[in-house]
Specification:
This protein has 506 residues and is an alpha+beta fold. The chain has helices spanning 47-60, 63-81, 111-125, 134-150, 155-162, 177-187, 192-208, 217-220, 223-235, 240-260, 292-298, 305-308, 310-322, 326-330, 370-374, 377-388, 410-422, 425-428, 436-448, 453-460, 467-471, 477-484, 493-504; strands spanning 3-4, 15-18, 21-31, 34-41, 84-93, 96-105, 337-340, 343-348, 364-367. The strands form 3 sheets. The protein has a 4-stranded antiparallel beta sheet. Helix 6 (177-187) crosses helix 10 (240-260). The longest helix is centred in the middle third of the chain and has 21 residues, at 240-260.
């Protein structure tokens, strides 16, 4: 049984709990004087995770979107209350008259229920596309299909008796490609960066077939044009996952146009778009660790990059010492620096919407290796928090979030990559090198000093290759700390001593 969660969070009135699992729930309009509810599991037993996920849902469900969900739920409930019957329809086949079984509304159907169903459908047709999620679009499309199915048979007579006019969509074949695309992007729950990427992909594909975004959509929506675009995708010398991205955007464009006017923009041309296979692991270029000489070059005092990019300096070291992925390293909050039984640790947890940890193994508490502590990392964090009067929930590296609240990793990925490019590392090394390569360095170093694989999993955040490693190799923090302290880069000690002094004054 669901119980009200007695929290004081922003989403308090939507947060419920059952058997320790949190749910997001709100009341829908009454039907037949009975209460109806929308209820969705937040898939967590952690209060803080539930609170953040509920906040996201509250933010995404404004009054218009909430009304949309209520209308969809109401339409589906009314549809389930309709009564159908089979009838025989005569069809001509080979000079013979055959009977074909079909369904139609039964005269026993409650006229009031039928009337309410069509009224709700009319409201759904008038909702702006930008206010719809992908799930809502699919459900509305299914309801519109059911409406068209209902209007067959003897429904015309029923409609006249109920005095409900038959609603016919007015053809509007004057949309431009840009209008359809922008409408599609507005309804998508994506960041501005992703929007721009999608916009660029679609623009490029239209150029392949001599079209501009200002052209009429119907010029694109032909079998010849779509086939030509698909042929271009096939011919591109790129990985399978990239081809899938191109194909997906064309498919989304067609589907979205169909939701705008299903009578004009059919979806049957989707069948022309082939399924492209995902990029296999064998096709992917593996990341390589940095060599010792390259690491010395990165931290060489002759380069002053880190003096003006302190956040890149510390996140680089976090990747180097605990093997964290980019998102985990740059989105650390002050509350994620913890001391457990006298052991200073980094706590990787997805307690904020922009934190996107890869899997359960990524959610971990890792003792900070001693060499990183000796560099003054904890002292620097405490000084920063005091200087900025920062709250525990604030980000240690604020540039991980844009002013509008979106995730931003450019300062780290592009900044760091540009730095190693500028000092000649990528030019002299043919392998794939980036921030993820630091994770390879951490793993390689742990192996070299004899740390067992199960401890490496705990430190780096891997699930492990076998069931034994995943489920039966649990270690306490004291033991993990002992192994983590073995992760040292003594050949970098001179460079570290220099940067320790510099950072102490920052």
């Amino acid at each position: 049984m669901l119980k009200k969660c007695k929290s004081n969070c922003q989403a308090d009135k939507y947060l419920w709990i059952r058997k320790s699992t949190f749910y997001f729930m709100f009341e829908l309009p009454k039907q037949n004087n009975k209460r109806k509810y929308f209820c969705k599991s937040l898939r967590t037993k952690n209060y803080y995770e539930a609170k953040e996920r509920a906040k996201i849902m509250v933010k995404s469900i404004n009054s218009e979107k909430l009304e949309t969900k209520q209308l969809i739920y109401t339409a589906k409930s009314l549809m389930n209350s309709l009564t159908f019957e089979e009838y025989d329809e005569e069809i001509q086949s080979g000079g013979q008259v055959l009977l074909q079984k079909k369904k139609r509304i039964s005269p026993q159907t409650d006229p009031e229920v039928l009337k309410q169903f069509f009224m709700v459908i009319d409201k759904l047709k008038n909702i702006e596309i930008k206010n719809l999620s992908e799930s809502d679009l699919v459900q509305i499309q299914q309801l519109l299909e059911k409406e068209r199915e209902i209007t067959m048979g003897n429904i015309e007579t029923l409609l006249k008796s109920l005095k409900i006019p038959t609603v016919k969509s007015t053809p509007k074949p004057d949309h431009t490609i840009e209008q359809i695309m922008e409408s599609m992007l507005k309804k998508a729950t994506t960041t501005k960066t992703v929007e721009n990427t999608k916009r660029k992909l679609i623009t490029n594909m239209m150029a392949w077939v001599g079209l501009k975004l200002t052209n009429k959509y119907l010029l694109f929506y032909t079998a010849d044009k779509i086939q030509a675009i698909c042929d271009n995708i096939k011919a591109k010398n790129v990985k399978g996952s990239v081809k899938r991205n191109y194909a997906r955007e064309i498919k989304n464009l067609i589907l979205h146009a169909n939701t705008i006017d299903p009578d004009i923009y059919k979806i049957n041309l989707i069948n022309l778009i082939p399924d492209f296979k995902k990029t296999t692991k064998a096709e992917k270029e593996p990341h390589w660790p940095y060599t010792n000489d390259e690491l010395k070059q990165i931290f060489d005092p002759a380069h002053d990059y880190f003096k003006s990019h302190i956040d890149v300096f510390w996140t680089t070291l976090i990747g180097l010492f605990v093997g964290s992925r980019t998102n985990a390293a740059i989105t650390l909050q002050y509350a994620d620096i913890v001391n457990v039984d006298g052991i200073d640790c980094l706590k990787f947890q997805d307690t904020h919407p922009i934190k996107q940890l890869k899997n359960d193994a990524s959610r971990r508490t890792v003792p900070i290796p001693q060499q990183l502590l000796d560099l003054g990392f904890i002292d620097w964090v405490k000084r920063q928090q005091s200087k900025l009067n920062a709250k525990p929930s604030d980000f240690i590296f604020p540039r991980c979030q844009t002013e509008s609240g979106e995730y931003n990793n450019k300062f780290m990925t592009r900044g760091f990559i540009q730095y190693i490019k500028n000092i000649g590392i990528t030019a002299n090394n043919p392998h794939k090198l980036d921030f993820h390569s630091l994770r390879k360095n951490a793993n390689q170093r742990l192996e070299e000093v004899g740390v067992s694989e199960t401890f490496i999993n705990d430190i780096i955040g891997w699930e492990g290759a076998s069931t034994r490693q995943q489920s039966y190799s649990n270690h306490d923090l004291v033991k993990i700390k002992k192994q983590a302290d073995k992760l040292r880069y003594d050949f970098l000690q001179d460079e570290f001593d220099y940067w320790k002094t510099v950072m102490a004054n920052m």
